[in-house]
Amino acid sequence: MNLFEYIRPTSVAEAIAAAGEPGSAYLGAGTNLLDLMKGGVTSPNRLIDLTHLPDLGKIEQLPDGSMRIGALVKNAALAHDTAFSKAYPAVAEALLSGASAQLRNAATVGGNLMQRTRCAYFADPASACNKREPGSGCDAIGGENRHHAILGWSESCIATHPSDFCVALTALDATIEIEGAGGRREVPITDFYLLPGDTPHEETVLEAGEIIVAIKLPANAAGFAGHQRYLKVRERTSYAFALVSAAAALEIENGTITEARLALGGVAMKPWRSAAAEAALAGLSPTREAFEKAAEAAFADARPSGENAYKIELGKRVVARALAMAAAGTPERMPALPASPFASDTGAIAHV
Amino acid sequence: MNLSLTLTINGETREIVLDDPRVTLLDLLRERLGLTGAKKGCDRGQCGACTILVDGQRINSCLALAISYHGSSITTVEGLAQGGTLHPVQQAFIDHDGFQCGFCTPGQVMSAVGLIAEGQTGDDPERVREAMSGNICRCGAYMGITEAVIEARGKMSETKPEKAA
């Protein structure tokens, strides 16, 4: 790890001013940043520690019924907040399917939004990576790329975004509250992440020095609370990143789907909202045929970026299963294995 | 650059001046304070051998920058036993053969103490296994570990009621 200067600001304004120096990076819990620094993937000159800033650690219900989550709220604290997990159960399930209990206790929700790809070539400074070193090429293309993107990728980068939390946030129309030198602004999460194109090193719409201060979930998203699930297929039952995941939410009235929400994880460099799948479901009965039709729509534009064509078929099945699980109803208690296809309430085997 | 911090470690308040901002909580405990219970396995947050409690919450001390934890209260495995009496989790690990080589054990024990305080698993082995998935045991003592966690939780909830899961 490179040597750095450590700064502990006492206000957001002070933090933003400190970040004006080139080579500065914001420090949350550091569960991703320190890992990357230890690997020599990133080497900031200055770490600006945000964890002592006041007023960023609250979960609040706003007068309009929406919920505002301070950027420093820990992943575990949010998942176990009773009011939150009741209103947005798929978000809680997504959080609890990510990382380990230790990491969820430390990691902040703002940091979750800002975590970097788990592409092995990005993590290896000896490999070519346009994201880590613009213009150096992409060793994932033609390399070990079973885990890579099938949607929205480019000839410059085929990495995926690793978050589970952000997939559920994307399905439920979360917005991100950002503060910078020019004041505060709000950005829908669907517009927050950038696809790689020719500039894979540019990952979000954040301007230099801007800080995520909060995440907001709209009140109407709670209308899906009775029918929302997160499903995540991974290479082991727990403590692994998604191969493909889906957050599904349905509003069902008199046996008809009035509104559907669907977002995918593990398939692109951003959490992937599928408007086509949502449109395909509206007005249909919640049947297997309807869910399979939506799954086809969700992956209509998918194409393999290497040895990962299997993800397209897998993704369709994950979508159909997630929608069926959402239609069956949000379970009263968090499943023992959150987001797992092996959870006993799916009728699958109880343990692997 | 001011690299001084205050930590309460196993009940004792310590004023610490770091010689380098890169020091993690794990390296501070092991290399500078002589508390070698927490182990350095992967040093990248993947194995759980370095698990400690910070303000009662279990975390990976290898991914925690010490200077950032100014003002925190830390419990390590050295702080669990009371006099000559082992903590119920420590005793349960012995009673159920919850280890073989022992390298991961301090992390497993601290993780189990954190898990019991979180109160989410009840005595469901599936929930316990899921909640312990951040602690790898290369000897494969998982069956004994799960039994130990369930027994210790039961014993501790006899004296202190668990909050509803």
From TrEMBL, chain A:
InterPro entries: CO_DH_flav_C, CO_DH_flav_C_dom_sf, Diverse_Substr_Oxidored, FAD-bd_PCMH, FAD-bd_PCMH-like_sf, FAD-bd_PCMH_sub1, FAD-bd_PCMH_sub2, Mopterin_DH_FAD-bd. Residues 1-222 form the FAD-binding PCMH-type domain. It comes from the Bacteria. Gene3D superfamilies: 3.30.465.10, CO dehydrogenase flavoprotein, C-terminal domain (3.30.390.50), Uridine Diphospho-n-acetylenolpyruvylglucosamine Reductase, domain 2 (3.30.43.10). PANTHER family: XANTHINE DEHYDROGENASE FAD-BINDING SUBUNIT XDHB-RELATED, XANTHINE DEHYDROGENASE SUBUNIT C-RELATED. Keywords: FAD, Flavoprotein. It comes from Jiella mangrovi. This is Xanthine dehydrogenase family protein subunit M. Pfam families: CO_deh_flav_C, FAD_binding_5. SUPFAM superfamilies: CO dehydrogenase flavoprotein C-terminal domain-like, FAD-binding/transporter-associated domain-like.
UniProtKB/TrEMBL annotation, chain B:
Residues 3-80 form the 2Fe-2S ferredoxin-type domain. Pfam families: Fer2, Fer2_2. The keyword Glycosyltransferase does not apply. Transmembrane segments: none annotated. InterPro entries: 2Fe-2S-bd, 2Fe-2S-bd_dom_sf, 2Fe-2S_ferredoxin-like_sf, 2Fe-2S_ferredoxin-type, 2Fe2S_fd_BS, Aldehyde_Oxdr_Iron-Sulfur, Beta-grasp_dom_sf. Signal peptide: none annotated. Keywords: Iron, Metal-binding, Oxidoreductase. This is (2Fe-2S)-binding protein.
